TrEMBL record, chains A, B:
Residues 218-317 form the Peptidase M20 dimerisation domain. The keyword Transmembrane does not apply. Gene3D superfamilies: 3.30.70.360, Zn peptidases. Belongs to the peptidase M20 family. This is M20 family metallo-hydrolase. It comes from the Bacteria. Keywords: Hydrolase. PANTHER family: ALLANTOATE AMIDOHYDROLASE (PTHR32494:SF5), ALLANTOATE DEIMINASE-RELATED (PTHR32494). CDD domains: M20_bAS. InterPro entries: Amidase_Cbmase (IPR010158), Bact_exopeptidase_dim_dom (IPR036264), Peptidase_M20 (IPR002933), Peptidase_M20_dimer (IPR011650). SUPFAM superfamilies: Bacterial exopeptidase dimerisation domain (SSF55031), Zn-dependent exopeptidases (SSF53187). It comes from Azospirillum oleiclasticum.
Length: 414, 414
């Protein structure tokens, strides 16, 4: 595990310029990005990613869920490739680095290998997974779960966004926009997967450290809770006679706050989305639906709290009907110790302060860990803020992460 | 107050057919209607109303808020007219009778006078007030409050619907669609106003009575509560560090439930609309806004509970900023006893079971009562259900209300 010359050819300015260029697709006030999965903005980002790869002669591939791969050949074309990357879609009020950094750092690493004149035994590929965020189309991480075979695209056939636009139609549009990407099946052998990402938490930033050698991800479970009552006139219907879905939702959330209470403040419980019908001031609501995002490092805690959600909601629903469905389940995962060691080693060899740490956010790497040896590289983001226009990272830290990534890829690709 | 021949010429079938024709504009499944104020559907309804009047030679008039008037001349063209009518806009999941009945019953009464060969001293006009519901554009009852001078159209210059469409642009489109309606100022003298309406409550239906001689309306106050926090990552942000607008809204609503508690179940408290941003599962909400619809027959109760809303919300908002604004205030009103007596008299003279009663819902008549002698005529609706696709009324009851209305109008117009 000597350090190669690859890291010396990482170009900080090029990497920064590409972040700025990508940020134009879906730019929102405050330096933010709104690049919903498979939107026109996402398609522009995907075309740009493929065009940048084409300048280096990297062939583009795709699959039936729209994952995009750029391939730098190895000496052994039959060898299972080393894979790196992340996602190009964003939150509705997201930043310029979440996901995008992992894709651009992967491309930068490949270009650094080119410029250093390094040939590897195995091919190296950079992936942009489809719809990691899950904010436009639920669930998230569609691309990686389809790739590893946990779900099939047919499972998402009925998914629509909030405006009623079908996922399948938007996927077809995105695929048609990149005819130069060669179709491939899912689940081909991957030698190893390494995902670079901003931390999205405050640990590295607060401690002034540059590299996180990520050894695990806490588990996550998503639920959808739907209350159905009856709409009626706000002026004439006595409160005792109502089946008010908003009031039922409020009681459910209050009950869930009790269920999810954690004095140690390790458990993460979020109701991020609420949808009400007919949603007008003077009609009692007939329907109220909300999402639950529950996370914890311990599978036993996720199981114990998660299995009580339906019971708590039923007890709180009063005269309304309640339906609880689980829309995503990602168990806590531990990454491959060998790759985590390499991340730590190369960071130290490059003189970068490094910490072994867990991830609070989930990532496509959480699913890939069950499919092939996997790890992640974190870099700091300002005050730990993410999923927010104010998300920020420095050009130096972005380049430092790409340097470590380049060295780890050379190591893994031989 | 002898009963004239007018009521005998009310045509039950014509009145029913016109309800069916109007229900086509914005028809939704389950026999319902979604005819948002100033939408394309509302404009179609307005054109149809004017066209039906034109068949009888009734001139059409409008004003700067888009109220529509059809005029049946009197012997004295300078006399202040008697006015009847209601509104053609609906709730998003509304029925075929709320508002529409009052407009069509007014038109039916005028046609009955024509067919009976009755000439009146005063002109009689039928009005369709603009945006009574307030479900697309807030506040409701824009047309009547502008007519009486309580608000000016300039007060609504910044109003937009949930999709961001400006009220002013939609108003201009609606006015342009009816060039044959002659512009008029607001606030011209009105001799009396009588509004026919379905009860929207269960009293007449449950008792098998046909006519409500409405003597009062409970008061209503609308508020908008807005919580502003900070969006952040659902997986990484400790709960103690969050400024979660959804959780703040839940605490506010729970606190307001306590404030509004009424063991007698006379007070009406409704949170009908909730809007969350960015409204995705894995981001803490930065903004949550909700509406309050508060009603009570006693002005003192409305004042006492209403003035504590901001204090309760501030106490519940935690780390979020809170803003409370009042968007509508309609004091409890008592109608003109002389007109209520005439409604009761003519119902009895026609052999219709009648009850003096208050209105739980508010209506444009609540504002008109402060401007000219005013009353309302209620007819039963099935199980008291309104603001719901299942809203229903019988052809016999619709015609009965129109017969009473025709007699009252003849009485008032001389």
């Amino acid at each position: 595990m000597a350090t190669s010359r690859a890291s010396a050819f990482v170009d900080k300015d090029r990497l920064w310029r590409r972040h700025a260029a990508m940020a134009a697709f879906g730019a929102i006030p405050g330096n933010g990005v709104n690049r919903a999965a498979l939107s026109a903005e996402d398609i522009e980002a995907r075309r740009t990613f493929v065009a940048w790869g084409a300048e280096r002669g990297y062939a583009a591939f795709t699959d039936a869920i729209g994952n995009l791969f750029l391939r730098r050949p190895g000496r052994d074309p039959a060898a299972a490739p080393v894979l790196t990357g992340s996602h190009l879609d964003s939150q509705p009020r997201g930043g310029r680095f979440d996901g995008t950094y992992g894709v651009l750092a992967g491309l930068e690493a490949l270009e650094a290998l080119d410029d250093a004149g390094i040939a590897t035994e195995r091919p190296i590929e950079v992936v942009s997974w489809t719809n990691e965020e899950g904010s436009r189309f639920q669930p998230g991480t569609m691309g990686s779960v389809a790739f590893i075979g946990l779900r099939s695209p047919a499972d998402f056939a009925d998914v629509r966004d909030a405006a009623g636009v079908p996922f399948t139609a938007e996927l077809a549009r995105a695929l048609a926009a990149l005819p130069q990407a060669t179709p491939r099946p899912f689940g081909w052998p991957v030698h190893a997967f390494v995902e670079a990402h901003i931390e999205q938490g405050p640990v590295l930033y607060d401690r002034g450290e540059t590299i996180g050698a990520v050894d695990s991800i806490q588990g996550a479970r998503w639920f959808q809770v739907e209350l159905r009552g009856e709409t009626s006139h706000a002026g004439t219907t006595p409160l005792a006679a109502r089946r008010d879905a908003v009031q039922a939702a409020v009681r459910c959330i209050a009950g869930l706050n009790d269920l999810m209470h954690d004095p140690a403040d390790v458990l993460r419980f979020t109701v991020g989305r609420v949808d009400v019908e007919p949603n007008v001031p003077n009609s009692v609501a007939s329907r109220a639906a909300f999402t639950i995002d529950l996370r914890h490092p311990e599978a036993t805690v996720l199981a114990a709290r998660g299995e009580r959600i339906a019971e708590v909601c039923r007890a709180a629903a009063g005269a309304c009907a309640v339906a609880v469905s689980e829309t995503l389940s990602m168990p806590p995962c531990r990454f491959d110790a060998g790759i985590v060691d390499r991340v730590e080693h190369h960071a130290q060899a490059l003189g970068l302060p490094v910490r072994r740490m867990p991830s609070g956010a989930f990532h496509d790497a959480g699913y890939m860990a069950g499919f092939c040896p996997t790890a992640m590289i974190f870099i700091p983001c300002e005050r730990g803020i993410s999923h927010n226009e104010a998300e920020n990272a420095t050009p130096d830290d972005l380049a430092a992460g790409a340097r470590v990534l380049a060295e780890v890829l050379v190591d893994l690709a031989g």
